Amino acid sequence: MNILVFGASSSIGASVAESFSAGNKMFLTGRNVSGLKTAAQRCRRAGASDVVEMAWDLGKGSGDLGEEVVRWRPDIIVNAASASSRLRDNGIAAEELEKIVSADLTAPLDVIRAVLSNRRGGQIGIVYISSFLSVVLSPDRAIYGALKRIHEKVLLGMAASQPEVRLMIVRISGRISTEGESSEARRLGAAVLDGYQRGEKTMYHGVSGKLGMLLFYVQPVLFVLGVKLSRLVR
Q1: Residue 103 DSSP label
Q2: Cα–Cα distance measured from residue 233 to residue 226, given in angstroms and rounded to the nearest whole number
Q3: Which CATH code fits 2-206?
Q4: Where do the DSSP E strands lie in 7-123?
Q5: Among 73, 23, 32, 230, residue whose Cα is nearest residue 14
Q6: Residues with Cβ < 8 Å from 230, sequence gap 6 or more?
Q7: What CA–CA distance (Å, rounded) separates 157 from 167?
């Protein structure tokens, strides 16, 4: 199969790509050239039959990337890209907002729509690496959570209207380093592959976030205090 991975230069994206590599052709894209090369090496070691690398900043739109992807004809699209995953609301400058919305929302969706409109039959899988903040409002993280929530809603609409789309949403509920080859990122990659093979539609990864989500619905005031306290301790 042909598998496209957005955000492959991050630890999370590289780990998911590595898990899906065995026997498949991989198309990796991300902003960080060095991280992209590392991800490609990991995919080759994991048994990928071919690896294509294309450094691209989704904050600048889909552009040439979209054209290359449509020609390549992916069978599975994994979106692990995010420009706001470590940003709090007050750290997002107004002049940067357009790029963030492009990277986190419009550019990857433009590519997905182009792939679907040029598809010649057969099923296409979409794996969206989201966050439990798409369903839980966390202090100072409203923008990030809203972008994830909107992205999920658009993909769910695509899947509902196009039966050939097989969608899995992965809500990460815990802190995972976006750099290096962390063991937690590797566990996430393995869990995503396992969930996809089992036909999961929505899966959560991480215990702390699940407990936090429960606290949010049961005692929202304590949830807010807990989040603020955890940020002071870091």
Answers
A1: I
A2: 11
A3: 3.40.50.720
A4: 25-30, 50-55, 76-79
A5: 32
A6: none
A7: 10
Instruction: Count Cβ neighbours within 10 Å for each residue of 130-148 and write b for 16 or more, e otherwise.
Output: bbbbbbbebeebebbbbbb
Domain boundaries of the chain, sorted by first residue: 2-206
C-alpha angle with apex 154: 150 to 156, nearest 5 degrees? Answer: 115
Quote the CA–CA distance of 173 and 117 in Å, as a whole number: 33
> pLDDT of the chain along its 234 residues, tens only?
999 999 999 999 999 999 999 999 999 999 999 999 999 999 999 999 999 999 999 999 999 999 999 999 999 999 999 998 878 888 888 889 999 999 999 999 999 999 999 988 889 999 999 998 888 877 788 899 999 999 999 999 999 999 999 999 999 877 776 666 788 899 999 999 999 999 999 998 875 555 555 555 555 555 555 545 444 444
Apex 135 CA angle, 134 and 139, nearest 5: 80
CB 213 within 8 A of CB 136: yes
d(CA 39, CA 183): 15
Joined tokens for residue 173: 């509920």
Q: CA-to-CA distance for 150 and 101, rounded, in angstroms?
A: 11
CA dist 187 and 182 (Å) reads: 9
Is the entire prediction scored with pTM above 0.90? no
Rounded to whole angstroms, how far apart are CA atoms 186 and 11?
Answer: 8
Q: Which of 150, 148, 142 is nearest to 227 (CA)?
A: 142
In this structure, the chain runs to a length of 234
